[in-house]
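Q: My collaborator sent me two sequences in one message, no labels, and asked for predicted structures for both. Can we handle them in order? The first one she listed is below.
A: Yes, handling them in the order given. First sequence, followed by its structure tokens:
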Amino acid sequence: MGEPGESRRGPLKSAVPSNVVSPVRRCSRTACGRPAVATLTYVYADSTAVLGPLATYAEPHCYDLCAEHSERLTAPRGWEVVRLAVDSGPARPSGDDLEALADAVREAARPQERAAGAGGGPETMSPGGPGRDGRPMEVARRGHLRVLRSPDS
């Protein structure tokens, strides 16, 4: 028989060689190898099929579809198909996205003492308990998250 753990048929071989595996998500339809451009999700409680842009992550109960299959999609009788706008090009960050990211980085880099006391406006929170005006006050801070003390306590 040979070595332990070796079958009579020989070593197991993969049906798909590992150097052919692609990081591109493919259409979920049988025998279709085209790249996916949309994600189909069923909402059983509402008898609705929702077809939208390709989801960020592959979910177990969603189906990725290529352009051809997403255009030809039909739903069972009595079901409604909701088609959300599908982006044709790759998503690019907008100026607002980049500005928000830069603001978040600046805020996270500020020392805690300056961040808690900066601004001086009515929304400024001082460490400790509630202020004289009855608004919640900042007790602790971690990055962009703040722990507030209720004015009642």
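Q: And the one she listed second?
A: Here it is, processed independently of the first:
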Amino acid sequence: MTRQRIVVVAVTVLVIAVAVAVGVARWQGAYDPGEDVVSPGAARDLVDTGALVIDVRTPEEFEEGRLEGAMNIPVESDDFDAQVEPLARDATYVVYCASGRRAGIAADRMEELGFTDVYNAGGLEDVAGVVAPLVR
């Protein structure tokens, strides 16, 4: 094999490996909320003007502690789409989870389903006491 051919094969293998890694990360639900997360103060302002709060953690996490007034719609449940189906598409929603990752996934999914005003508030620790009191 020539040196040029070895380089071409190596680059091809590298490109395929990166593509597979990205695909696996997406498939496993890897999500970096990054700049898509609104500040706790902005989330509070949204709630003060009528936004509904959705906790997208598991029911077990929800029972351990949640924001007062939050509804629980676990994003990792098989029927997430069916659970958000009856909600108004044009209402404002503030979603949170433990860290902001699942909230970002839920916000993205809701937007794919036609919701027009969904905000990722990040993690419970970020918003507890700012957006609403913590209920245990």
